[in-house]
């Protein structure tokens, strides 16, 4: 059975035999909600490649203390995958972030497409971005990732065009395309653009000339699930899924 995973922000100095305190919301969740007890083993990750296995020494209502049994660093996987996700309506944005995190995406970029039903402005933009980041963090824990995805600030169409221009493999999902998803081959970076409910506008598609317009199949997927299907198709022929 897999060990429970918790996030600890400072694992850089952890050594075998040392003690680590898990406090704050994460510590309370471990000790009070999950009811982790003395003698049980847990895993701690910092979201930047370090994973620690520890045995719980003591617990309290505010958290726990674990003795380090093992420390390992896991290199960031390649190819590095960035998904530009057009902002969908309602809570479908969090669903997209959740499944993209679970499948291993490295960077998620919310995009204010011209046909996006969801609109981020002012205070709502800050709250929505915070929800995406919180969702990514929880999904990363659930999927036992050592590297957590970066959820960036909302991007403009010009920002997205620049990302596509810098990528080894750049693809744009489009329902009218005839080209299938390409192979990643020896690429180290890939950028995938997922359009909004209303589709990518012609002027946006023109701006994304550095990317190849592709389609997944005859069926039309929702914007919240198209990304995970496309990433799976990309990764299926990559070293990450070898």
Oligomer kind: single chain
Assign the CATH architecture of the largest domain: 3-Layer(aba) Sandwich
Order of helices and strands: EEHEEEEHEHEHEEHEH
Biggest sheet descriptor: 6 strands, parallel
- Contiguous low-pLDDT stretches (5 residues minimum) are none
The CATH superfamily of the largest domain is SPOUT methyltransferase, trefoil knot domain
CATH topology of the largest domain: Alpha/beta knot
Provide an overview of this structure.
The protein folds into two domains: 5-73, Ribosomal Protein L25, Chain P (Beta Barrel); 80-241, Alpha/beta knot (3-Layer(aba) Sandwich), CATH 3.40.1280. The mean pLDDT is 94. α2 packs parallel to α3 and α2 (92-103) runs parallel beside α6 (223-235). The chain has six helices and eleven strands. The chain has a six-stranded parallel beta sheet, sandwiched between helices. The chain has a five-stranded mixed beta sheet with strand order 1-3-4-5-2. β4 and β5 form a beta hairpin. The chain has 242 residues and is α/β, with parallel strands linked by helices.
Keyword list:
242 residues, alpha/beta, Ribosomal Protein L25, Chain P, Alpha/beta knot, 2 domains, six-stranded parallel β-sheet, five-stranded mixed β-sheet, 26% strand
Question: What secondary-structure arrangement, pairings included, does this model have?
Answer:
Blueprint: E1 5-7, E2 19-22, H1 24-33, E3 41-45, E4 50-60, E5 63-73, E6 80-86, H2 92-103, E7 107-111, H3 122-142, E8 150-151, H4 157-166, E9 169-173, E10 189-194, H5 202-207, E11 212-214, H6 223-235
Parallel strand pairs: 1-3, 6-7, 6-10, 7-8, 9-10, 9-11
Antiparallel strand pairs: 2-5, 3-4, 4-5
């Amino acid at each position: 059975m897999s060990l429970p995973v918790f996030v600890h922000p400072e694992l850089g100095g952890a050594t075998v035999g040392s003690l680590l305190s898990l406090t704050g919301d994460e510590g309370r969740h471990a000790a009070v909600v999950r009811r982790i007890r003395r003698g049980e083993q847990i895993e701690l990750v910092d979201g930047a490649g370090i994973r620690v296995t520890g045995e719980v020494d003591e617990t309290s209502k505010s958290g726990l203390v674990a003795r380090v049994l093992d420390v390992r660093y896991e290199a960031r996987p390649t190819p590095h995958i960035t998904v530009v996700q057009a902002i969908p309506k309602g809570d479908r944005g969090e669903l997209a972030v959740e499944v993209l995190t679970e499948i291993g995406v490295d960077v998620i970029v919310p995009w204010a497409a011209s046909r996006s039903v969801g609109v981020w402005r002012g205070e709502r933009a800050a709250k929505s971005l915070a929800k995406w980041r919180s969702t990514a963090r929880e999904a990363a824990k659930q999927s036992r990732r050592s590297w957590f995805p970066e959820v960036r600030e909302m991007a403009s169409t010009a920002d997205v065009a620049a990302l596509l221009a810098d990528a080894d493999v750049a693809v744009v999902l489009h329902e009218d395309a005839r080209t299938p998803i390409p192979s990643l081959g020896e690429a180290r970076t890939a950028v995938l653009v997922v359009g909004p409910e209303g589709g990518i506008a012609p002027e946006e598609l023109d701006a994304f000339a550095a990317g190849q317009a592709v389609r997944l199949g005859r069926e039309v997927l929702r914007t919240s699930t198209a990304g995970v299907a496309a990433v799976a198709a990309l990764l299926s022929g990559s070293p990450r899924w070898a």
